[in-house]
Amino acid sequence: MTRRIKETFVKATMLKILAVAVVTIAAASYAGHDAIVFGSFLNEQNAIVKRQHVIQSLELDVTIEPVLIDRQTWYRVLAYHVSARDLLVKVRLEGFSNSWLLLESSRNTATAVNATLDRERSPPDSPVPSTGLAKLKRLNAGEASPLPKGRERIRRDDLEMYGDISYENRFFGKTGPSDQDKFHASVTFSPELYVRLRDQKSSFTFKPKFRGDSVDSRRNLIDIQELSWVDVKDSIETRVGIRKDFWGVTETFHRVDIINQTDLVESFDGEDKLGQPMINLSFEGNWGTIDLYALLGFRERTFPGENGRLRGPIPIDLDSAEYESGAKNRRIDFAIRWNQDYENTQLALSHFSGTSREPEFLSVLREGSPSLAPYYSVIEQTGLELLYIIGGMAVKLEAISRSGQGERFSAATAGFEYTQVGIFDTRLDLGWLMEINHDDRQRSSPIAVGTRLTFNDLYDSQILSGVLWNEDSGETNVFVEASRRIGGCCKLSLESLYFNGGLTTNGGNQMSEYIRDDDFVRLEFIYFLGS
Amino acid sequence: MKTTRLLIVLGHILALGVANAASSTNDLDRGLEIAKASDSNFSGYGDSKTTLKMLLKDRKGFVTERVMEMRLLEIANDGDKSLIVFDSPRDVRGVAVLSYAHKVGSDEQWLYLPALKRVKRVASKNRTGPFLGSEFSLEDLSFQEIEKYSHRYIKDDSFDGDEFFLIERVPLDPYSGYTKQLVWIEKENFLIRQIHHYDKKSFHLKTQYFKNYKKYLERIWRPTEIEMINHQTKKTTTLLFEQLTFNTGLTNKDFTQNSLKRAK
What pLDDT does residue A17 have? Predict the structure, then answer.
């Protein structure tokens, strides 16, 4: 086989010699041949330089032909050759990797019909051909697309409406300590309207959320998750309105995340948030991304009511919320975050100055009975996020230092995440997660260990399970979360949480003692709206 | 002047003859040469946008469809950047993946989860498993930079009336899901038409067919259909590229974490 290839090359080279001779003698005789095109230029001088460059490197006879494309004259640098096709490989290997074949048969038609052209290979002011693609001048989409006009850009609808409706049942193993029901049901409706404006550079989103609960009126909710306008100009993104934003890298505890208030009644894990009014400017550059936030006003954390489960012994009295700031919940808070990605590392630093999302509690008497009022201090919180990737493992750290709630304190979550792909020769992936949580305010550092089983099937089935273990108190919480898509429209998810209060004599806290009987299974059916 | 040229050309011929003497080295060179020629069909495209339909067919013939939008940007002297945004099924609408392929070193990848508004950096080793339940892995879908393989020319081959070069490609990335790949490259235009993927146990796991090539910008070839057959599961995934356009004006600014967040 190699012999045959050798022959081809010898033949090609021979033909090359022949072609050079023939072309030199009779420049007009190449008309019936294919050609290798090295580039096309709007500036004739650049074409001349390119031609010289090709001649010096390849010993080919190169010509420049003006081509009229879209009412512009392009100077095309090309070499006609009897075996242009054979030569092309060699030419590409010689460093002219973007050269291409202009077939004799297609020459007339292709040029006229497709109005196709190469990019200009170098800027007009510099006659030196540039190989960096990034430096190439871009042409308008209309000039170069082989598709008919009107289909040149992928344009989605300018207005999209979708959303979801979900029905949720929570089954508690026992009646609550305050005689709360075992069975809770709720319905959530969250439609979304998305409008894309001005050639995809700005957009508008409106996403309200409505929730109704059968037992706990505190779980009834009308919230605007998003009502915002986003505009992109150069490398600056302006986001104005009610929004959600997440900071952080870890999975079990989110130390750094502080922009949005937690919707604690939606889910006990604190992953659900309320919309926050803000003005957010985001700058991107080689140095990373800087986000500046002005947070306009404050949202109180949601807490279960008297009939609700997963709460402490004394219901939180939302009407008596107190603030350190004289502006109460109208204070304007500020935040800044810088983040940057390096080859294997992701680093972010942030600072928040404003009303704490996490309240302390004041004992108050309300109508003669003891009650707890949330107290929101003004805090200064500096945060660090670090993620380092080694092979298939991501090592993570989140740490904060906060002042304003008593003495300055630190808290951190550190751990790793690792995924085994295709375990036991199946399609299944098994992810491992371990995180340790430290908080100066607590006596011990709970450890979370979890696994995520991804089935990689048609239904995106997955099971997340884990244990949160507090060595000091002996408390152990076990959780299982599973989800699966049903048909093209729906999704079923299951969440289960099991509390083991541990040795109460050894410092188990009051909260966890109280929710010991709140083991539950939550089943949610989600229907997705829209096309 | 003419004599000098002739001498240079003769020199080339002699050099080729010497190279041929060492046969195995030559097969490697030849393999690389063919791979490079094939690769140049893909390079020089600048940027592109396409709607990607993924048809997943199980062994009973039941078909599930997924739709996503894919944006690509060619980067000089490095791997390309890509942004994939999911449109359906509905529960993953708005989920987006941003990838920076690198010719040397690991690729970088970020996942955007719209429900949590969270951008998550992903360890790029996890690229060998099935992608969204399909028969494609992320590795199959990402750019197959020449520098990431060693190539060896095996033989000339022909079927269906077309002539092919058959080359063997061995991934240099220790985290690749494959031990080797056999690649059939059509001689006429150096288009990849078929790949046999061999898994870690050197079992011929999957066969990939590239169909209906179309030429864009007079020199860039793209298949409009790619089919992957898994011989173990007997499942098939077909990728359909619709509304493929080039020179759409995408720049580096459209492949950042901020653009990932607003990609829907």
Answer: 47
